Amino acid sequence: MTTTEKLWEIEPSGPLRGDVTVRGAKNAVSKHMVAAMLGDGPSVIRNAPDVGEAGLTAAMLEHIGMRVERDDSEITVVPGPVANAGVAKAFTGLNRIPILMLGPLLHLAGEAFVPLVGGDPIGRRPVDFHVDALRAFGAEVDIAEDGIHARAKELRGTRIDLPYPSVGATETVLLTAVRAKGRTVIRNAATEPEIVELALFLQRMGAGISFSPERRIVVEGVERLHGAQTRLGGDRIEAFSYLVAGLVTGGEVRVHGCPQDRLVTPITTLARMGAEFQITDDWIMASAPNGLRSAAVQTDTHPGFATDWQTPLMVLFTQASGMSVLHETVYENRLAYVPALQSMGAEIEVYDTCLGGPACRYHDTGAAHSAVVRGVSKLRGGDVTMPDIRAGFSAVLAGAAAEGPSTLRGVHHIERGYHRPVEQFQKLGLNLRSREV
Ligand SMILES: CC(=O)N[C@H]1[C@@H](OP(=O)(O)OP(=O)(O)OC[C@H]2O[C@@H](n3ccc(=O)[nH]c3=O)[C@H](O)[C@@H]2O)O[C@H](CO)[C@@H](O)[C@@H]1O
Ligand SMILES: C=C(OP(=O)(O)O)C(=O)O
């Protein structure tokens, strides 16, 4: 049997310029599809991105017994009787969405199985907060070698104190609490825009959710939820990444479709480095006619500088004059892509200490989670295997800013979460060719 591999070949073509429109986020679309399982009628999700992740989630839902219709930017989920109270083992390790299905499946079927979740290898990524939360709702949860089995006759509202404001665990609690009996209070909840977006959708479906100060969310469980319609907000990770694509090549990209309020922190970060912005209600444009200077940035939970913005920023640091510092505090292994950038000429050193901010959870763990970058470096094209989705995008940026051609492997990582990236980069003038070998 012959297997084919998809490669991207890049011939740097000078400054990237032009317009890009982003759609809803990979980190939002599947979660809305999971929420739609709980409705007693169809739900419609508009402005959905064309990403591999949504296709995987559709296949999981169809196996469970839901009907999913996809039409360019619109996804309709039609809930049906549960045919299988679980996610098929064929989905083992493909992404992290199955863990979010446990609560909804328990409501719909009283039992659930999800295979071991994957997602990108950017840290240990345990699911203990999810499991502890489900147990607090009254579910019996067994962790087996092949995945997680759960059952519950009834789920009761509870109080959950998250040890860290995890996005995924907050979503598990929301998706379980909305139909649990009584009140649930989540303390130390995540407040990322994708959490608010999911909560708004659930509220449209009839859920009783309120936000309180200091990361506290209160949910009054209801007996039934109905279908709802929504339009996803623009992907803040893609929007930032394309702004950087312009800056890192000395060009100017105008990003449509992502509201400014999702990008407050990184716009200011880039402006401190010397980027100049034009911002309207419809688009955001960045350029750096006078060059870029170094910065010290620490990733954090919202409203801090998100971990997903870190990889494009690292490439930009290589093109900013002076020494920049990056401290990754969300995932302990998110700098694993640095050797690929080093092989392309980037001058980056990684450290296991906490640089550029106070000590984080990874202080004293030995995890290499800080980096010092010397700019400006002359990048050269390389042959790079992309290890994960965000690192993958940074490899494209490095290839676009480099001298000489690059070959990128592991393209499926990018295709899992970026909306039609080849088309988008080609529109900006990048000579990028996708080829099967
Ligand atoms: C807070 C944060 O920035 N979350 C990011 C995280 O969301 P994602 O939902 O993937 O990850 P979490 O927010 O759940 O994880 C945050 C931290 O909590 C830890 N953890 C989480 C769950 C658990 O049961 N036990 C546990 O220890 C994780 O290992 C990690 O160190 O990655 C996504 C993809 O890159 C980003 O879009 C999110 O913005
Ligand atoms: C790591 C990511 O995705 P996942 O959590 O699905 O692995 C990401 O979106 O950056």
TrEMBL record:
The keyword Cell wall biogenesis/degradation applies. Transmembrane segments: none annotated. InterPro entries: Enolpyruvate_Tfrase_dom, Enolpyruvate_Tfrase_sf, MurA_subfamily, RNA3'P_cycl/enolpyr_Trfase_a/b, UDP_GlcNAc_COvinyl_MurA. It is found in: Cytoplasm. This is UDP-N-acetylglucosamine 1-carboxyvinyltransferase. It comes from the Bacteria. Its EC number is 2.5.1.7. CDD domains: UdpNAET (cd01555). Pathway: Cell wall biogenesis; peptidoglycan biosynthesis. It comes from Streptomyces coryli. The keyword Cell cycle applies. GO terms for cellular component: cytoplasm. It catalyses: phosphoenolpyruvate + UDP-N-acetyl-alpha-D-glucosamine = UDP-N-acetyl-3-O-(1-carboxyvinyl)-alpha-D-glucosamine + phosphate. One of its GO terms (molecular function) is UDP-N-acetylglucosamine 1-carboxyvinyltransferase activity. Cell wall formation. Adds enolpyruvyl to UDP-N-acetylglucosamine. Keywords: Cell cycle, Cell division, Cell shape, Cell wall biogenesis/degradation, Cytoplasm, Peptidoglycan synthesis, Transferase. Belongs to the EPSP synthase family. MurA subfamily. One of its GO terms (biological process) is cell wall organization. Pfam families: EPSP_synthase. Residues 11-420 form the Enolpyruvate transferase domain.
